[in-house]
Amino acid sequence: MKALKKILLVIVVLVAIALIAAAVTKKRYAVEREIVINKPKQEVFDYIKFLKNQDNYSKWVMMDPAMKKTYTGTDGTVGFVSAWDSDKKDVGKGEQEIKKIADGERVDFELRFIKPFESTEQAYMQTESVSPTETKVKWGFDGHMNYPMNLMLLFMDFEKMIGDDLQTGLKNLKSNLEK
Question: Which DSSP helix (H) or strand (E) runs through 44?
């Protein structure tokens, strides 16, 4: 009985330490990647503002070419929603909505994940002119994890995980636009 009490006490102390650590651990993270594309800024922006074009460069879309997709609204305008549903766990189910467009500059999206977990996050794509024939594209993602799940931020490298996927998408975008 004494051994069982000691084991229980150790478990309670470990759980308490984890909960205290989660209370002081950050809850937000931001990831951004960029690439220079050898095309004029307006041409690049006019391509990336359409969510349907992500089918041609986003790593996440390419993970399941058989996913079901539905669209609501007019692509390339505020309020357009692109929804997906996949049997693949890494893709899941959710939707992306264009929330704001600064023409020629930036598109802000809201990502609403439904499966395998529920979450709402913000993302954006931004263009900057490097020269008349070169454009820097930035793709960013702002995320959060609620307490106590934010403890995972200490053990998982979201910067690398999400950043690598963003960079793959940007490389695909560059390749497609420079053809």
Answer: helix 41-48
